[in-house]
Backbone:
């Protein structure tokens, strides 16, 4: 199952914070109560609760009530979906880089065969602007004698 754009936004927002990434790491190793998580950070219990709520909203962790205690667990299925998304991005960029390498390799091979003087003069749109394309001159830039 793919992630919707809204889910992707929530996941990246959730993982943008170092504390939330650490909570995910800790809960991948084993479940933890919100109290135990709060003891691990130099912040208030309420702040850790908010971090857990953001992670739960992104589907990265689940929170289950056991009496007065809230147990937090990472959701491996959601993490696998996120991993799949990141793998797809990596494949996309690897493909783009491979095509760019091939294009640059072909261009380099073509230049090796071209006569030396051909690559020195700009052609077509590579030329610098001339005439009316130049920036207007200011009053202090006028040639001498044209007042």
Residues:
């Amino acid at each position: 199952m793919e992630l919707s754009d809204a889910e992707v936004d929530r996941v990246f927002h959730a993982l943008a914070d170092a504390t939330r990434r650490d909570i995910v790491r800790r809960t991948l190793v084993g479940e933890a109560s919100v109290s135990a998580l709060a003891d691990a950070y130099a912040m208030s219990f309420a702040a850790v609760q908010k971090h857990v709520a953001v992670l739960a909203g992104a589907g990265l962790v689940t929170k289950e009530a056991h009496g007065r205690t809230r147990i937090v667990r990472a959701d491996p299925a959601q993490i696998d979906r996120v991993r799949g998304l990141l793998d797809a991005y990596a494949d996309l960029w690897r493909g783009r880089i491979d095509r760019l390498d091939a294009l640059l390799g072909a261009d380099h091979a073509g230049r090796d065969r071209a006569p030396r003087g051909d690559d020195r003069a700009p052609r077509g749109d590579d030329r610098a602007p001339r005439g009316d394309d130049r920036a207007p001159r200011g009053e202090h830039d006028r040639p001498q004698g044209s007042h």
Summary: The mean pLDDT is 82. Helices lie at 5-15, 18-29, 34-39, 45-57, 76-113. The longest strand covers residues 61-66.
